[in-house]
Amino acid sequence: MRNDGRLEPAPALRAIASTQATFLWSLASSGNSLYAGTGAASGGSQLLKIDEKGAITTAASFKELNVQAVLPLPDGSVLAATSPDGKVYRVRGGGTPEVVFDASLTTEKPKYLWSLALAKDGDLLVAAGAPATIFRVKLAGTSPTATPKPTVFFHSGDQHIRSLLVAPDGTVYAGSDGAGIVYRIASDGKPFALYAAPKHEITTMALDAAGNLYAAAVGDRRPPALPPLPASGQQAVSITILQPGSAISANNNSIVPDGSEIYRISPDGTPLRLVALQQDVVYALAVRNGALYAGTGNRGRVYRIDTENAGVYTDIAHTEASQVTAMTPTAAGLAMVTANSGKVLQISDVVAANASYISDVFDGETTTRWGRAEVTGSAAGVDLFVRSGNIENPRDTLGNLWSDWKSVTANQTPLPAPASRYLQWKAVLKPGAQLRSVTMNYLPRNLPPQVDDIAVQPGARYTGGGSAAPSSTVAISFRGAPSTAPALALPESGAPPLIAQRDRNAVTLRWLAHDPNNDDLMFAVDFRDVHEQTWHRLKDKISERAYSFDSALLPDGEYELRVTASDAPVHTDADTLKGERTSAPFKIDTTPPVPGTLTATVGAGKLHATFDATDATSPISHAEYSVDAGPWQYLEPAGALSDSKSEHYDFTSAVTGTGEHTVAIRVFDRNENAVSVKALAR
């Protein structure tokens, strides 16, 4: 699959051998055989020989943990570089490995050996790290029992020389870890910094026939955060030096941040970033038949990179391993080794005869009818198949629980897949075919909308604003909202709480609703007295999820409201579905209590008054009295608890002076409807 979504037949991928090793770090081809270097957390490493039939034999074993590089020599022997604290061994058929380079015997004493190459004159070049050095070792005329004396061919201030290759003209290219520099080194050892990558580690390089150099880099170049050092004297200061590692030295599946980038450096030195892979680390590059291939981790994928058009690449193989660590050309294609787990695979030079691609499972979220498939790409050479089911995984422990794959013909409608929740398609491509897009038309079964909650607030009017002073507003919450947080945000839109104006002559309701098909909705509101059976329409064709009305439209009483949601805006009348919900009962009370006769008498400096008050709808909440226009004072009913629709009041108040006195009474119900009366006491 190309990164723009275009699908084409991939090269055939086959397994050559599966080893017992968890890690295979290196690979080389010699004649009809392959040599692979293993890695292990403990117990040493091996050089494995894989013949053309895939049979595996151990060519040599080493005490070091990893065989990081393998290099066949013209005489049929094979060099193996081991790490850490490693050596370069020469392995001849069946004999004891000969040490041709021992890092511990050098002045630099590098800890890691990363790459091997032969100089044009036949000398061995060894790329090492900690410190970054390239050693030169003369192999010609060396006695099997003597270790050749190496010389330093190149030394840099980086941590590692991670990758190494030699061009046909003898020019040496080296990639570093630390500063992320690609060096060009002449045969006499004169270095030149060819390119400084924006990443810190050059993991691998490749060279094509036209002299273009390809380099892969990984790791952000931001300097590491160093802990502060104590500055006070006479204290022991412990300093730990941490040796920077390399991407390939990690024996785990951790993702290297920032992904990898691949660059092309033309023969005149002009660099060009070809691709940036955000989720992949490039461990190996190889040129085959003019194409550039990249083996990556930590998803074990192989990409073919377009070297002429920057930003274009094709995902050609998924290896089912975590890392593709090394690649080498063979007579039939491109061989590669993997880590986690250790396998030897080959990508053929020819594409698969019947390359198939299976799409992700599409979820229609409900029972769905499947319509025509729209396919763009080659006019011929593409066969399309579909299947459907009602569980997400087509297979479980009971076997295949979906429909069978069915072939799709041009413009076939409906698709040959039963109505169901899930659908999957498969394309089989012949060589040369190309698939650009596949679109499946579908129609989910219409499901009714749902009204999830209703809140009714008498004494409030919603105008769509919310800028009034807090003292004149009321927050309308749903029944499930905590009392400490009465304002509830609308979940479907993330809108702020519904703020309504205080208005004793209005009623506001709000509701939550959703549609399983995400259809547009409209709403209707009905009312009825709790003692009635018949609903009466209050308002229809409401698009908002809140509505206010004048309470005077309804006589005093106890009512319910019903909100009906309809998906009519996007369906015909025959297909329209509805859902409804009824509110909790609420009261409308706009009539004040009715007072009885107020009687008042004066005697012995005291005023005595009695009266009754009755409300038709809600209980009396409280009463107040005033004598001779004095301050209002709280008045208790008989029994001291005001909780009934009828209350009796009998009270005495001290007065001064003789003659007549005026007493006034105010009575409130629970909805703050009030009535006042007065009487003259003699």
UniProtKB/TrEMBL annotation:
Extract the InterPro entries matched here: FN3_dom, FN3_sf, Ig-like_fold, WD40/YVTN_repeat-like_dom_sf
Concerning CDD domains, the annotation shows: FN3
Q: Which domain of life is it from?
A: Bacteria
Protein name in the entry: Fibronectin type-III domain-containing protein
Q: Which species does the entry assign this protein to?
A: Terriglobus roseus
